[in-house]
Design brief:
Helices cover about 75% and strands about 0% of the residues. It is mainly alpha-helical and about 100 residues long.
Amino acid sequence: MNILSYFHIDMWTLWGLVSQGLFFLSFVVQWYESEKRKTSVIPMEFWYLRILGALMTFIYAVARRDIVFLASTVLQIIIYSRNIHLISLKAPAGKG
């Protein structure tokens, strides 16, 4: 019995898996940087991976016509964009 035969796997499924992988990778990046610095930090790469994952999930939700994912990713995109903007305001000149 092949468990994958119960699921519809197509290009959009793979797209969705990659977008979720980016979310997971953001946590790996955050963990790695925190371990390296010996303190809890959230690096800019975390936010970039999160917004890329949210944008990809938004596209997935539109393609799948899934209002639940669509609504949640719109909010995520707004929050992640705002965090990136606030961090860039604090960055020294030439380091944005």
